[in-house]
Design goal:
By secondary structure, the protein is mainly alpha-helical. Helix content is 73%, strand content 0%.
């Protein structure tokens, strides 16, 4: 009975480990899909969609390598249907939250460009 009980516990531990690892892999895939969607949303000219994406991207620091270039591109070339200053501010804050030192040149370029980061919409 002792050996059977030990085997049962070992089998239960293995199944639990597989389920937990499987859940972790699924969560990683879900996060990858979410980040890809948010990066796509960042390209949207609609301020509400793009602004929401810019703010949410800061929640995924492990995807920094994919997020930072998209944020920098948006900062450099995008204009939105309204509130572009708020959008650039949100992007700068997300870059700061991600500790994206590689974005400093783009931020300095923004400062020199004269484009506003003043709040036009968000208080």
């Amino acid at each position: 009975m002792g050996r059977h009980h030990t085997m049962h516990r070992l089998l239960l531990a293995l199944v639990t480990g597989v389920v937990l690892l499987g859940g972790s892999a699924a969560r990683g895939q879900d996060e990858t899909t979410t980040v890809k969607k948010l990066v796509r949303d960042l390209e949207n000219r609609d301020w509400d969609v793009a602004h929401g994406a810019a703010e949410k991207l800061s929640e995924y620091p492990r995807f920094k390598a994919q997020i930072v270039p998209a944020l920098v591109d948006a900062l450099k070339i995008r204009e939105w249907n309204r509130c572009s200053g708020d959008m650039r501010d949100a992007i700068a804050r997300t870059l700061q939250a991600l500790k994206a030192r590689e974005a400093v040149p783009a931020l300095l370029e923004l400062a020199a460009s004269g484009k506003t980061i003043d709040h036009e919409c968000v208080e």
